[in-house]
Design goal:
There is one protein chain. With 382 residues, this protein is an alpha/beta fold. The protein has two domains: 188 residues, Rossmann fold; 130 residues, Response regulator (Rossmann fold), CATH 3.40.50.2300. Helix content is 46%, strand content 16%. It is built from 13 helices and 14 strands. The strands form three sheets. Strands 7-6-8-9-10-13-14 form a seven-stranded mixed sheet, with helices on both faces. The longest helix has 25 residues. The protein is globular and about 70 Å long. The termini are far apart. The N terminus is likely disordered.
């Protein structure tokens, strides 16, 4: 009898394997797994809204954070997934895309890397739907002035940057004859320069000369000639990234040596070539937190290996913003939006761009010193 049982075991094994193969070929095995809850777990989705289909720096940065988190098991074994939507199109497209991400894709939270004007429409959609949103690029301070508890900003606001610039220029450096270059036709440029000018007026410093680079037909040479005629003590740029790069290039070509400061938004690598970014190096100064050099160097190497180019400001802030959300998800382990919002309020994260936490309005906490640009990003403090 014992010998008979011994001989039957291989037969049972062969029969079992044949049965499994039959079920797999018929599709019943997959159905059985799904019924038993053994299928691949559904992904945890983050929705990201970008200005247009060419604004890939933020997408690349967020993907770096998500891929790294997935290497360590995602969220309780569930993989993270980035769902991308472009805001190209007529006014209001951003709001529609946000609604689609929320109700069709069922994202746990939203990220934004776009201009301030569009950020308002996305913020409204997120607020109405009660979905947390983390901004990775817009520095418009009015986004948090509505005291919406669902909105958080990873980048220093125009108001915070204005305070840092004013402190550096007028108190630390005691510079006079300040010239401001803006673009009145560009929402972000106008907003950033207005907050700087308001800060100067509030502190009763000498009123700077303002040059509008947005006037049709104005070339970089003409702009620089107008700047130099005023014999400035320093220059502060709030113009578009290409215009700012053109001014920096012309100043270098003319061998003009004056202090040049500006907004973080002038360094958006989506609108600058690698050659244009180099015009800012070792000359341009911006408000920023203290970057973590070890983390930055590691991120830069991995980014270059994966995408074949150097990362810039938009990519790094997007990486940090994605990590803020991932950190909140790990704490909550749930799609419960109120729990995620609470976790975001309690954020205390060491990002590449410095320590990240938020005040009661969702603005980034911290002091933002003036740093010189090296390789397209802030280097050591001045």
């Amino acid at each position: 009898m014992g010998n008979f049982q011994h001989l039957m075991k291989p037969c049972y094994m062969i029969s079992f394997l044949l049965t499994i193969m039959t079920l797999i070929s018929s599709g019943q095995y997959g159905a059985s797994l799904k019924a038993s809850g053994m299928q691949n777990p559904p992904p945890v989705k983050i929705g990201i809204l970008i200005t247009d289909s060419t604004s890939l720096a933020a997408v690349n940065g967020a993907l770096m954070a998500i891929n790294k988190a997935n290497e360590y098991g995602g969220i309780d074994g569930r993989p993270l997934q980035l769902v991308i939507r472009s805001m190209e199109g007529p006014w209001g497209t951003g709001s529609k895309q946000a609604v689609g991400l929320i109700f069709e894709e069922k994202v746990w939270a939203l990220m934004g890397s776009h201009d301030g004007r569009n950020a308002h429409t996305v913020e409204q959609a997120a607020t109405k739907s009660i979905v947390p949103m983390v901004s990775a690029w817009s520095s418009d301070p009015t986004l948090t002035q509505a005291f919406v508890p669902w909105f958080f900003n990873c980048i220093p606001t125009d108001k915070q940057q204005a305070e840092s610039l004013s402190e550096e220029i007028f108190h630390k450096r005691k510079l006079n004859s300040v010239i401001v270059v803006t673009d009145r036709n560009n929402y972000d440029s106008r907003m950033a320069s207005d907050f700087f000018l308001k800060k100067i007026a509030l502190d009763k410093h000498p009123e700077p000369k303002v040059i509008d680079s947005g006037v049709q037909g104005r070339k970089n040479d003409a702009l620089v000639d107008e700047i130099l005629k005023s014999d400035p003590g320093c220059l502060v740029l709030f113009s578009s990234p290409p215009t700012s790069a053109g001014i920096m290039k012309t100043l270098k070509q003319k061998r003009v040596s004056i202090p040049v400061y500006g907004s973080l938004l002038t360094l958006d690598e989506n609108f600058l070539s690698s050659a244009e970014i180099k015009y800012f190096d070792d000359v341009y100064r911006v408000p920023s937190g203290q970057w973590q050099n070890e983390e930055w160097n590691s991120f830069r190497r991995e980014y270059e290996l994966k995408f074949g180019k150097m990362p810039g400001m938009a990519a790094v802030y997007s990486y940090d913003a994605a990590n803020v959300l991932i950190n909140a998800f790990k704490k909550t382990r749930s799609a419960d939006r109120e729990m995620i919002q609470k976790a975001l309020e309690e954020t205390n994260l060491k990002g590449i761009t410095g320590p990240i936490s938020f005040d009661e309005n969702g603005n980034r906490n911290g002091s933002f010193g003036i740093l010189k640009i090296r390789n397209g990003v802030p280097g050591a403090p001045l």
